[in-house]
Amino acid sequence: MRIDSHHHLWDYSAEQYGWINSEMSLLRRDFTAADLEVAVASSGVSAAITVQARQSILESQWLLGLAEDSKMIAGVVGWVELAGPSVCDELDLLVQSPWLKGVRHVVQDEPDDFLLDADFGRGIAQLNAYGLVYDLLIYARQLPQAISFVDQHPNQVFVLDHIAKPTVRESEFDQAWARNIKELSLRPNVSCKFSGVVTEVRDASWSAQTLQPYWDVALESFGPERLMFGSDWPVCLLRSEYKAWVAAVEELTGGLSAGEQKWFWADSAIKAYGLQLETPKDGT
């Protein structure tokens, strides 16, 4: 079994998805659950976690509805206004769906000290009671603040998206990223997605060799039991087809034992998100 711990779906409109700019023209269309099934064909992926792509309760509800009807979607990471006064009301609404597994805010677009905002922290403090994961979406430069943030919430389960988006160049390794991600990994309540890395490559082309130093640090830091596969499809299409990404990750993971492979490709995501893959979706 393989689980894609990070992908997106959207009913595209330029107004609602303004972050999809003119340089991302191939993303300016709908991406459906049916498209996902086509993309993962022959990759060994049998389940996936859908992650919010805009900061909207309506989108979260839409994604949960898709999960209800999809054989592929095993869980949803949605969005609520964590810094708002109605965060518990919003959580109460969304957790009526068993497919809600976590929430996320697009912190990478916020000021670097956003994670340490008191109102945001009060919202994060509610998640544990709902049994929800918090997906941490940041750039590498925000890792020091993320470390302080995680330390404020030692009982909350965190999953770091896209290995914190280091700047990837074959000619220059991101040493600051490596130091900080190793420090963050010392917190046992943090897992990490090896996802979204190809879109951080600054070179004209990439290969598994390009990504090898970043894979090595992520694996050394989190180990296979806290490191999970993700595609960031369809955003990854800006640099890689789905099958090419899977092939690169297969090359990177080639040295893992069978047990370690099982953790990376499936069990780490199952554990972090509390996935119940045996639950039938037709209610029987």
From TrEMBL:
Q: Which UniProt keywords apply?
A: Hydrolase
Q: Which residues form the signal peptide?
A: none
Question: Record's Gene3D superfamilies?
Answer: Metal-dependent hydrolases
| Alphabetized Pfam families for the sequence | Amidohydro_2
GO terms of molecular function = hydrolase activity
Per the record's keyword annotation, is Hydrolase included, yes or no? yes
What stretches pass through the bilayer? none
Reply yes or no: does the keyword Cell cycle apply: no
User: This protein's superkingdom?
Assistant: Bacteria
**What is the similarity comment for this entry?**
Belongs to the metallo-dependent hydrolases superfamily.
PANTHER family recorded for this chain? AMIDOHYDROLASE, AMIDOHYDROLASE-RELATED DOMAIN-CONTAINING PROTEIN
* This protein's name: Amidohydrolase
